[in-house]
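PROTEIN SPECIFICATION:
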Amino acid sequence: MAAAEPSSEAAPPAPAAAADEPPKPLHDPDPYSTPPYGHPGPWAPAPPVQHPATTQAQAPTPAPVQPAAAPSGMEPPAPVAATDPALPPAALPASAAATPDPASPSAPGGPAVPGVPEGPGATDNPWHRYDPWAPVPAGPLQQTGVGVLSEGERRRQVRKRIVGGALALALASGVLGGVVGAQLERKGGFGGVKLPQASAEPTGRAADSVAGIAARALPSVVTLHVSGSEESGTGTGFVLDTRGHILTNNHVVEPAGGDGEITVVFSGGQSAKADVVGRDSGYDLAVVKVRGVSGLRPLPLGNSDGVQVGDPVVAIGAPFDLEGTVTSGIISAKERPITAGGDSGDASDVSYVDALQTDAPINPGNSGGPLLDARGRVIGINSAIRSAADGSDSGSGEAGSIGLGFAIPVNQGRRVAEELINTGHATHPVIGVTLDLDYAGDGARVSTKGGDAGAPVTPGGPGALAGIQAGDVITEVDGTRVHSGTELIVKTRAHRPGDRLELTVERDGRERTLSLVLGSAEGD
Protein backbone atom coordinates (compact mmCIF):
# COMPACT_ATOMS: atom_id res chain seq x y z
CA MET A 1 0.00 0.00 0.00
CA ALA A 2 1.10 3.34 -0.85
CA ALA A 3 1.77 5.56 2.04
CA ALA A 4 -0.93 7.86 2.85
CA GLU A 5 -0.25 11.32 1.91
CA PRO A 6 -0.92 14.05 4.25
CA SER A 7 -4.08 15.80 3.74
CA SER A 8 -3.83 19.14 2.25
CA GLU A 9 -6.80 20.32 4.19
CA ALA A 10 -6.20 22.32 7.31
CA ALA A 11 -8.09 21.76 10.53
CA PRO A 12 -10.88 24.16 11.11
CA PRO A 13 -9.65 27.10 13.18
CA ALA A 14 -10.97 27.50 16.69
CA PRO A 15 -13.56 30.10 17.07
CA ALA A 16 -12.03 33.47 17.93
CA ALA A 17 -14.62 34.13 20.53
CA ALA A 18 -13.41 31.18 22.58
CA ALA A 19 -9.97 32.73 22.98
CA ASP A 20 -11.45 35.93 24.41
CA GLU A 21 -13.65 34.27 27.00
CA PRO A 22 -12.24 33.81 30.54
CA PRO A 23 -12.19 30.31 31.97
CA LYS A 24 -15.35 29.42 33.69
CA PRO A 25 -15.40 28.03 37.19
CA LEU A 26 -16.45 24.51 37.84
CA HIS A 27 -19.43 25.63 39.90
CA ASP A 28 -22.20 28.05 39.40
CA PRO A 29 -21.39 31.72 39.74
CA ASP A 30 -22.18 33.40 43.01
CA PRO A 31 -25.44 35.24 42.54
CA TYR A 32 -24.15 37.98 44.88
CA SER A 33 -20.88 38.40 42.99
CA THR A 34 -18.87 37.81 46.18
CA PRO A 35 -15.12 38.00 45.51
CA PRO A 36 -13.00 36.31 44.42
CA TYR A 37 -15.56 34.72 42.10
CA GLY A 38 -17.33 37.91 41.14
CA HIS A 39 -15.91 41.17 40.04
CA PRO A 40 -13.04 42.61 42.08
CA GLY A 41 -14.28 44.33 45.18
CA PRO A 42 -12.90 45.75 48.41
CA TRP A 43 -12.09 42.25 49.65
CA ALA A 44 -10.40 41.05 46.50
CA PRO A 45 -6.74 40.00 46.93
CA ALA A 46 -4.33 42.71 45.84
CA PRO A 47 -2.16 41.87 42.81
CA PRO A 48 1.48 41.18 43.54
CA VAL A 49 3.67 44.28 43.59
CA GLN A 50 7.33 44.29 42.76
CA HIS A 51 9.56 46.54 44.91
CA PRO A 52 11.08 49.10 42.62
CA ALA A 53 14.53 48.61 44.06
CA THR A 54 14.66 44.97 43.07
CA THR A 55 14.51 45.80 39.37
CA GLN A 56 17.90 47.55 39.58
CA ALA A 57 19.66 44.46 40.84
CA GLN A 58 18.01 42.02 38.48
CA ALA A 59 19.72 40.67 35.42
CA PRO A 60 18.56 41.83 32.03
CA THR A 61 15.21 40.51 31.24
CA PRO A 62 15.51 37.67 28.73
CA ALA A 63 13.87 38.14 25.44
CA PRO A 64 10.41 36.83 25.36
CA VAL A 65 10.07 33.39 23.87
CA GLN A 66 8.49 33.46 20.57
CA PRO A 67 5.79 30.97 20.16
CA ALA A 68 6.46 28.17 17.69
CA ALA A 69 5.31 28.72 14.24
CA ALA A 70 1.92 27.38 13.69
CA PRO A 71 1.47 24.77 11.04
CA SER A 72 0.76 26.14 7.71
CA GLY A 73 -2.74 27.15 7.23
CA MET A 74 -3.31 27.83 10.95
CA GLU A 75 -3.32 31.14 12.71
CA PRO A 76 -1.03 31.51 15.69
CA PRO A 77 -2.78 31.57 19.07
CA ALA A 78 -3.45 34.99 20.39
CA PRO A 79 -1.31 35.92 23.39
CA VAL A 80 -3.05 36.28 26.68
CA ALA A 81 -2.91 39.80 27.94
CA ALA A 82 -1.23 40.08 31.33
CA THR A 83 -3.54 42.79 32.23
CA ASP A 84 -6.64 40.90 31.43
CA PRO A 85 -8.80 41.43 34.45
CA ALA A 86 -10.43 38.11 33.93
CA LEU A 87 -7.26 36.18 34.71
CA PRO A 88 -5.83 36.00 38.18
CA PRO A 89 -2.38 37.42 38.68
CA ALA A 90 -0.95 34.02 39.43
CA ALA A 91 -1.59 32.96 35.83
CA LEU A 92 1.08 35.31 34.56
CA PRO A 93 4.49 33.92 33.80
CA ALA A 94 7.20 34.70 36.28
CA SER A 95 9.18 36.53 33.68
CA ALA A 96 6.23 38.71 32.90
CA ALA A 97 5.58 39.41 36.54
CA ALA A 98 9.18 40.40 37.08
CA THR A 99 9.35 42.68 34.10
CA PRO A 100 8.68 46.25 35.11
CA ASP A 101 6.57 48.41 33.01
CA PRO A 102 8.65 51.16 31.54
CA ALA A 103 5.65 53.35 31.65
CA SER A 104 5.19 52.74 35.39
CA PRO A 105 6.06 55.75 37.47
CA SER A 106 7.96 53.51 39.88
CA ALA A 107 10.25 52.16 37.27
CA PRO A 108 13.59 53.84 36.99
CA GLY A 109 13.62 56.28 34.19
CA GLY A 110 9.94 55.93 33.69
CA PRO A 111 7.89 58.86 32.61
CA ALA A 112 6.26 61.06 35.19
CA VAL A 113 2.65 60.33 35.80
CA PRO A 114 0.34 63.21 36.41
CA GLY A 115 -1.12 63.28 39.93
CA VAL A 116 1.78 61.41 41.55
CA PRO A 117 3.92 63.77 43.71
CA GLU A 118 7.63 63.86 43.10
CA GLY A 119 10.54 65.58 44.73
CA PRO A 120 11.25 66.30 48.42
CA GLY A 121 7.62 66.77 49.25
CA ALA A 122 6.55 63.49 47.74
CA THR A 123 6.86 61.68 51.10
CA ASP A 124 4.43 63.94 52.91
CA ASN A 125 1.66 61.47 52.15
CA PRO A 126 1.84 58.68 54.81
CA TRP A 127 0.95 56.13 52.13
CA HIS A 128 4.02 57.15 50.17
CA ARG A 129 6.22 56.91 53.29
CA TYR A 130 5.12 53.34 53.99
CA ASP A 131 7.71 50.87 52.80
CA PRO A 132 6.72 47.22 53.20
CA TRP A 133 10.13 46.21 51.88
CA ALA A 134 12.12 48.03 54.58
CA PRO A 135 15.17 46.02 55.72
CA VAL A 136 14.51 43.61 58.60
CA PRO A 137 16.57 44.34 61.78
CA ALA A 138 19.68 42.27 62.05
CA GLY A 139 19.57 39.23 64.24
CA PRO A 140 17.63 36.04 64.36
CA LEU A 141 13.91 36.24 64.08
CA GLN A 142 11.36 34.68 66.39
CA GLN A 143 8.35 32.88 65.05
CA THR A 144 6.39 36.11 65.39
CA GLY A 145 8.96 37.98 63.36
CA VAL A 146 10.17 40.09 66.31
CA GLY A 147 13.88 40.42 66.82
CA VAL A 148 15.39 38.34 69.67
CA LEU A 149 16.75 40.44 72.56
CA SER A 150 20.37 40.11 73.49
CA GLU A 151 21.48 38.91 76.92
CA GLY A 152 22.23 42.44 78.11
CA GLU A 153 18.90 43.74 76.87
CA ARG A 154 17.08 40.91 78.65
CA ARG A 155 18.90 41.69 81.90
CA ARG A 156 18.08 45.37 81.64
CA GLN A 157 14.46 44.52 80.92
CA VAL A 158 14.33 42.23 83.99
CA ARG A 159 15.88 44.93 86.15
CA LYS A 160 13.38 47.48 84.90
CA ARG A 161 10.54 45.12 85.68
CA ILE A 162 11.89 44.41 89.17
CA VAL A 163 12.39 48.13 89.92
CA GLY A 164 8.98 48.98 88.52
CA GLY A 165 7.33 46.23 90.56
CA ALA A 166 9.10 47.39 93.72
CA LEU A 167 7.98 50.99 93.13
CA ALA A 168 4.43 49.85 92.47
CA LEU A 169 4.48 47.71 95.63
CA ALA A 170 5.83 50.62 97.70
CA LEU A 171 3.19 52.95 96.33
CA ALA A 172 0.41 50.48 97.02
CA SER A 173 1.77 49.86 100.54
CA GLY A 174 1.92 53.60 101.23
CA VAL A 175 -1.63 54.14 100.06
CA LEU A 176 -2.89 51.16 102.07
CA GLY A 177 -0.95 52.27 105.15
CA GLY A 178 -2.36 55.79 104.86
CA VAL A 179 -5.91 54.46 104.64
CA VAL A 180 -5.37 52.17 107.62
CA GLY A 181 -3.69 54.93 109.65
CA ALA A 182 -6.48 57.39 108.93
CA GLN A 183 -9.05 54.78 109.92
CA LEU A 184 -7.24 54.05 113.17
CA GLU A 185 -6.79 57.75 113.98
CA ARG A 186 -10.42 58.69 113.36
CA LYS A 187 -12.10 55.71 114.90
CA GLY A 188 -9.41 54.20 117.09
CA GLY A 189 -9.58 50.96 115.12
CA PHE A 190 -11.87 49.05 112.84
CA GLY A 191 -14.19 48.02 115.65
CA GLY A 192 -16.09 49.98 118.29
CA VAL A 193 -14.20 52.25 120.68
CA LYS A 194 -13.51 50.63 124.05
CA LEU A 195 -11.79 52.77 126.66
CA PRO A 196 -9.66 51.21 129.39
CA GLN A 197 -11.07 51.29 132.88
CA ALA A 198 -9.84 50.15 136.25
CA SER A 199 -11.60 47.26 137.86
CA ALA A 200 -13.97 47.79 140.76
CA GLU A 201 -12.32 48.62 144.07
CA PRO A 202 -13.53 48.25 147.64
CA THR A 203 -15.66 51.20 148.75
CA GLY A 204 -14.10 51.38 152.20
CA ARG A 205 -11.43 54.00 152.91
CA ALA A 206 -8.85 54.45 155.62
CA ALA A 207 -10.25 56.06 158.77
CA ASP A 208 -7.75 58.93 158.66
CA SER A 209 -8.28 59.71 154.96
CA VAL A 210 -10.44 62.63 153.86
CA ALA A 211 -13.00 60.19 152.49
CA GLY A 212 -13.02 58.20 155.73
CA ILE A 213 -13.38 61.35 157.87
CA ALA A 214 -16.18 62.68 155.64
CA ALA A 215 -18.06 59.38 155.71
CA ARG A 216 -18.18 59.42 159.51
CA ALA A 217 -18.88 63.15 159.93
CA LEU A 218 -21.47 63.90 157.25
CA PRO A 219 -24.44 62.30 159.10
CA SER A 220 -23.79 64.73 161.99
CA VAL A 221 -23.53 67.89 159.87
CA VAL A 222 -26.70 69.85 159.09
CA THR A 223 -27.74 72.77 156.88
CA LEU A 224 -29.77 75.62 158.41
CA HIS A 225 -32.25 77.66 156.35
CA VAL A 226 -33.16 80.81 158.26
CA SER A 227 -35.87 83.25 157.28
CA GLY A 228 -37.07 86.38 159.05
CA SER A 229 -39.27 89.37 158.43
CA GLU A 230 -36.50 91.32 156.71
CA GLU A 231 -33.84 88.86 155.54
CA SER A 232 -32.92 85.21 155.20
CA GLY A 233 -29.81 83.12 154.99
CA THR A 234 -28.19 79.71 154.90
CA GLY A 235 -25.52 78.26 157.16
CA THR A 236 -24.14 75.08 158.63
CA GLY A 237 -24.15 73.46 162.06
CA PHE A 238 -23.31 70.14 163.70
CA VAL A 239 -24.95 67.93 166.32
CA LEU A 240 -23.70 68.34 169.90
CA ASP A 241 -25.74 65.66 171.68
CA THR A 242 -28.59 63.17 171.25
CA ARG A 243 -31.11 65.63 172.69
CA GLY A 244 -31.09 67.71 169.52
CA HIS A 245 -28.72 70.57 170.38
CA ILE A 246 -26.88 71.95 167.35
CA LEU A 247 -24.00 74.45 167.44
CA THR A 248 -23.64 77.13 164.76
CA ASN A 249 -22.66 80.79 164.34
CA ASN A 250 -24.65 83.67 165.76
CA HIS A 251 -24.69 85.47 162.39
CA VAL A 252 -26.34 82.41 160.83
CA VAL A 253 -29.45 82.49 163.05
CA GLU A 254 -29.54 86.26 163.59
CA PRO A 255 -31.84 86.95 160.57
CA ALA A 256 -34.62 84.92 162.23
CA GLY A 257 -34.92 87.52 165.03
CA GLY A 258 -37.62 86.80 167.56
CA ASP A 259 -40.35 85.60 165.20
CA GLY A 260 -38.45 84.03 162.31
CA GLU A 261 -38.23 80.40 161.25
CA ILE A 262 -35.28 78.00 161.26
CA THR A 263 -35.34 74.74 159.28
CA VAL A 264 -32.64 72.14 159.82
CA VAL A 265 -31.88 69.71 156.96
CA PHE A 266 -29.86 66.58 157.71
CA SER A 267 -27.50 64.81 155.30
CA GLY A 268 -30.07 62.12 154.62
CA GLY A 269 -32.60 64.67 153.43
CA GLN A 270 -34.81 64.77 156.57
CA SER A 271 -35.79 68.22 157.79
CA ALA A 272 -37.02 69.54 161.12
CA LYS A 273 -37.92 72.85 162.71
CA ALA A 274 -35.54 74.33 165.28
CA ASP A 275 -35.64 76.96 168.02
CA VAL A 276 -32.85 79.20 169.29
CA VAL A 277 -31.64 78.10 172.74
CA GLY A 278 -29.12 80.91 173.15
CA ARG A 279 -26.72 83.05 171.17
CA ASP A 280 -23.84 85.43 171.81
CA SER A 281 -22.58 88.02 169.31
CA GLY A 282 -19.27 88.57 171.16
CA TYR A 283 -18.23 85.01 170.47
CA ASP A 284 -20.35 84.67 167.29
CA LEU A 285 -21.84 81.40 168.57
CA ALA A 286 -25.41 80.12 168.91
CA VAL A 287 -27.17 76.91 169.91
CA VAL A 288 -30.47 75.73 168.37
CA LYS A 289 -32.53 72.66 169.19
CA VAL A 290 -34.53 70.49 166.78
CA ARG A 291 -37.84 68.93 167.77
CA GLY A 292 -39.15 65.44 167.05
CA VAL A 293 -35.88 63.95 165.77
CA SER A 294 -34.30 60.76 167.07
CA GLY A 295 -31.19 58.78 166.26
CA LEU A 296 -28.92 61.80 166.21
CA ARG A 297 -25.18 61.18 166.01
CA PRO A 298 -23.09 63.82 167.85
CA LEU A 299 -19.68 64.76 166.52
CA PRO A 300 -16.79 64.14 168.96
CA LEU A 301 -15.02 67.27 170.17
CA GLY A 302 -11.24 67.54 170.07
CA ASN A 303 -8.78 69.81 171.91
CA SER A 304 -7.81 72.96 170.05
CA ASP A 305 -4.91 73.66 172.43
CA GLY A 306 -3.05 70.68 170.97
CA VAL A 307 -3.36 71.81 167.34
CA GLN A 308 -0.10 72.57 165.53
CA VAL A 309 0.54 74.59 162.40
CA GLY A 310 0.62 72.21 159.43
CA ASP A 311 -1.85 69.71 160.84
CA PRO A 312 -4.29 68.42 158.17
CA VAL A 313 -7.90 69.48 158.53
CA VAL A 314 -11.23 68.86 156.80
CA ALA A 315 -14.04 71.41 156.51
CA ILE A 316 -17.67 70.44 155.90
CA GLY A 317 -20.52 72.81 155.10
CA ALA A 318 -23.00 74.19 152.61
CA PRO A 319 -21.17 76.90 150.63
CA PHE A 320 -23.66 78.84 148.53
CA ASP A 321 -26.34 76.37 149.70
CA LEU A 322 -24.43 73.37 148.30
CA GLU A 323 -24.97 71.13 151.31
CA GLY A 324 -22.58 68.34 152.23
CA THR A 325 -19.54 69.98 150.60
CA VAL A 326 -16.20 68.62 151.85
CA THR A 327 -12.90 70.49 151.50
CA SER A 328 -9.50 69.88 153.03
CA GLY A 329 -6.34 71.78 153.91
CA ILE A 330 -4.03 72.45 156.84
CA ILE A 331 -3.78 74.69 159.87
CA SER A 332 -1.83 77.63 158.46
CA ALA A 333 -1.66 79.72 161.68
CA LYS A 334 -2.83 79.76 165.31
CA GLU A 335 -4.07 82.50 167.67
CA ARG A 336 -4.90 84.79 164.78
CA PRO A 337 -6.79 87.78 166.28
CA ILE A 338 -9.76 88.65 164.07
CA THR A 339 -12.94 90.62 164.42
CA ALA A 340 -16.15 90.09 162.51
CA GLY A 341 -19.53 91.75 162.39
CA GLY A 342 -20.00 95.34 163.49
CA ASP A 343 -22.84 96.02 161.09
CA SER A 344 -24.95 97.66 163.81
CA GLY A 345 -22.63 100.66 164.01
CA ASP A 346 -22.22 100.67 167.79
CA ALA A 347 -19.74 97.74 167.96
CA SER A 348 -22.21 95.77 170.06
CA ASP A 349 -22.26 92.93 167.55
CA VAL A 350 -18.52 92.74 166.95
CA SER A 351 -17.04 89.32 167.65
CA TYR A 352 -13.47 88.95 168.86
CA VAL A 353 -11.90 85.62 168.06
CA ASP A 354 -8.42 84.24 168.72
CA ALA A 355 -8.89 82.07 165.65
CA LEU A 356 -7.34 79.08 163.98
CA GLN A 357 -6.35 79.96 160.41
CA THR A 358 -6.76 77.37 157.64
CA ASP A 359 -6.31 77.21 153.88
CA ALA A 360 -9.17 74.72 153.50
CA PRO A 361 -11.65 76.45 151.15
CA ILE A 362 -14.40 78.10 153.21
CA ASN A 363 -17.13 80.14 151.54
CA PRO A 364 -20.39 81.82 152.53
CA GLY A 365 -22.62 79.02 153.75
CA ASN A 366 -19.78 77.20 155.51
CA SER A 367 -20.31 79.37 158.60
CA GLY A 368 -21.04 77.28 161.69
CA GLY A 369 -19.69 74.09 160.15
CA PRO A 370 -17.06 71.88 161.79
CA LEU A 371 -13.33 72.00 161.17
CA LEU A 372 -12.10 68.42 161.79
CA ASP A 373 -8.68 67.01 162.55
CA ALA A 374 -7.20 63.84 161.04
CA ARG A 375 -9.17 61.69 163.51
CA GLY A 376 -12.51 63.27 162.64
CA ARG A 377 -12.81 65.32 165.83
CA VAL A 378 -14.01 68.92 165.90
CA ILE A 379 -11.19 71.37 166.61
CA GLY A 380 -12.90 74.55 165.35
CA ILE A 381 -16.13 76.18 164.22
CA ASN A 382 -15.76 77.82 160.78
CA SER A 383 -16.72 81.44 161.23
CA ALA A 384 -15.08 83.93 158.84
CA ILE A 385 -13.01 84.33 155.67
CA ARG A 386 -10.69 87.02 154.43
CA SER A 387 -12.37 88.52 151.35
CA ALA A 388 -10.42 89.71 148.34
CA ALA A 389 -13.23 92.11 147.51
CA ASP A 390 -12.85 94.42 150.50
CA GLY A 391 -10.03 92.87 152.50
CA SER A 392 -12.24 92.42 155.55
CA ASP A 393 -13.01 89.44 157.73
CA SER A 394 -16.58 88.56 156.98
CA GLY A 395 -18.87 85.80 158.07
CA SER A 396 -21.74 86.66 155.78
CA GLY A 397 -20.27 88.28 152.67
CA GLU A 398 -20.69 86.77 149.24
CA ALA A 399 -17.03 86.92 148.26
CA GLY A 400 -15.32 83.60 147.57
CA SER A 401 -12.43 81.93 149.36
CA ILE A 402 -8.88 83.10 148.77
CA GLY A 403 -7.40 80.44 151.04
CA LEU A 404 -7.73 82.41 154.29
CA GLY A 405 -10.40 80.91 156.50
CA PHE A 406 -10.82 81.33 160.26
CA ALA A 407 -12.38 79.05 162.84
CA ILE A 408 -13.28 79.60 166.49
CA PRO A 409 -11.21 77.18 168.62
CA VAL A 410 -13.43 74.37 169.88
CA ASN A 411 -12.24 74.80 173.48
CA GLN A 412 -13.81 78.27 173.50
CA GLY A 413 -16.83 77.01 171.59
CA ARG A 414 -17.44 74.17 174.04
CA ARG A 415 -17.45 76.52 177.06
CA VAL A 416 -19.80 79.00 175.37
CA ALA A 417 -22.12 76.21 174.14
CA GLU A 418 -22.42 74.76 177.65
CA GLU A 419 -23.33 78.16 179.07
CA LEU A 420 -25.87 78.82 176.32
CA ILE A 421 -27.53 75.42 176.84
CA ASN A 422 -27.56 75.71 180.62
CA THR A 423 -28.39 79.40 181.10
CA GLY A 424 -29.24 80.82 177.70
CA HIS A 425 -26.40 83.32 178.03
CA ALA A 426 -22.60 83.31 177.83
CA THR A 427 -20.21 85.10 180.20
CA HIS A 428 -17.26 87.16 179.01
CA PRO A 429 -13.96 87.50 180.91
CA VAL A 430 -13.05 91.14 181.58
CA ILE A 431 -10.12 93.17 182.90
CA GLY A 432 -12.24 96.10 184.07
CA VAL A 433 -10.65 98.90 182.01
CA THR A 434 -11.67 101.05 179.02
CA LEU A 435 -9.23 100.92 176.10
CA ASP A 436 -8.31 103.69 173.67
CA LEU A 437 -8.95 101.93 170.34
CA ASP A 438 -7.65 104.96 168.43
CA TYR A 439 -4.17 104.63 169.92
CA ALA A 440 -1.67 104.28 167.04
CA GLY A 441 1.31 103.13 169.11
CA ASP A 442 2.46 99.61 169.84
CA GLY A 443 0.37 97.98 172.55
CA ALA A 444 -3.06 98.53 174.14
CA ARG A 445 -3.38 101.84 175.98
CA VAL A 446 -5.85 102.37 178.83
CA SER A 447 -7.99 105.39 178.05
CA THR A 448 -7.36 108.57 179.97
CA LYS A 449 -10.97 109.71 179.64
CA GLY A 450 -13.95 108.15 181.23
CA GLY A 451 -16.59 106.66 179.00
CA ASP A 452 -20.31 106.10 179.29
CA ALA A 453 -19.62 103.47 181.94
CA GLY A 454 -17.64 105.84 184.08
CA ALA A 455 -13.93 105.93 184.90
CA PRO A 456 -11.32 104.36 182.56
CA VAL A 457 -10.43 101.88 185.31
CA THR A 458 -13.44 100.32 186.99
CA PRO A 459 -13.14 100.86 190.73
CA GLY A 460 -12.85 97.53 192.52
CA GLY A 461 -12.52 95.69 189.25
CA PRO A 462 -9.79 93.20 188.28
CA GLY A 463 -7.64 95.94 186.70
CA ALA A 464 -7.87 98.27 189.66
CA LEU A 465 -7.03 95.43 192.00
CA ALA A 466 -3.98 94.55 189.88
CA GLY A 467 -2.70 98.20 189.92
CA ILE A 468 -3.54 99.29 186.37
CA GLN A 469 -3.86 103.06 185.94
CA ALA A 470 -5.29 105.32 183.25
CA GLY A 471 -2.76 105.90 180.45
CA ASP A 472 -0.88 102.60 181.05
CA VAL A 473 0.12 100.70 177.87
CA ILE A 474 -0.28 96.91 178.13
CA THR A 475 2.34 95.30 175.85
CA GLU A 476 2.22 91.57 176.76
CA VAL A 477 -0.26 88.95 177.99
CA ASP A 478 1.30 85.81 179.44
CA GLY A 479 4.49 86.62 177.55
CA THR A 480 2.77 87.09 174.16
CA ARG A 481 3.23 90.49 172.55
CA VAL A 482 0.09 92.61 172.12
CA HIS A 483 0.12 95.32 169.42
CA SER A 484 -3.33 96.88 169.75
CA GLY A 485 -6.42 97.17 171.92
CA THR A 486 -8.27 94.70 169.67
CA GLU A 487 -5.59 92.08 170.21
CA LEU A 488 -5.85 92.55 173.99
CA ILE A 489 -9.61 91.92 173.84
CA VAL A 490 -9.10 88.80 171.70
CA LYS A 491 -6.49 87.42 174.08
CA THR A 492 -8.75 88.10 177.05
CA ARG A 493 -11.79 86.45 175.41
CA ALA A 494 -9.75 83.32 174.81
CA HIS A 495 -9.83 82.66 178.58
CA ARG A 496 -12.52 81.86 181.10
CA PRO A 497 -13.62 84.20 183.88
CA GLY A 498 -11.44 83.51 186.92
CA ASP A 499 -8.30 82.69 184.89
CA ARG A 500 -5.11 84.46 186.06
CA LEU A 501 -3.14 86.52 183.57
CA GLU A 502 0.35 88.02 183.70
CA LEU A 503 0.34 91.48 182.14
CA THR A 504 3.37 93.55 181.12
CA VAL A 505 2.57 97.25 181.54
CA GLU A 506 4.58 100.25 180.37
CA ARG A 507 4.20 103.43 182.47
CA ASP A 508 6.33 106.58 182.30
CA GLY A 509 8.86 104.76 180.10
CA ARG A 510 9.28 101.85 182.49
CA GLU A 511 7.86 98.32 182.21
CA ARG A 512 6.39 96.39 185.09
CA THR A 513 4.57 93.04 185.41
CA LEU A 514 1.15 92.79 187.01
CA SER A 515 -0.88 89.69 187.95
CA LEU A 516 -4.60 89.86 187.26
CA VAL A 517 -7.61 87.55 187.84
CA LEU A 518 -10.23 87.91 185.12
CA GLY A 519 -13.66 89.03 186.12
CA SER A 520 -16.96 88.09 184.51
CA ALA A 521 -19.55 90.00 182.52
CA GLU A 522 -22.71 88.64 181.01
CA GLY A 523 -22.89 88.83 177.26
CA ASP A 524 -25.84 89.94 175.21
Observations:
- The first strand starts at residue 221 and ends at 227.
- The two ends are 199 Å apart (CA to CA).
- The longest helix spans residues 151-187.
- Residues 1-11, 55-59, 80-115 have pLDDT under 50 and may be disordered.
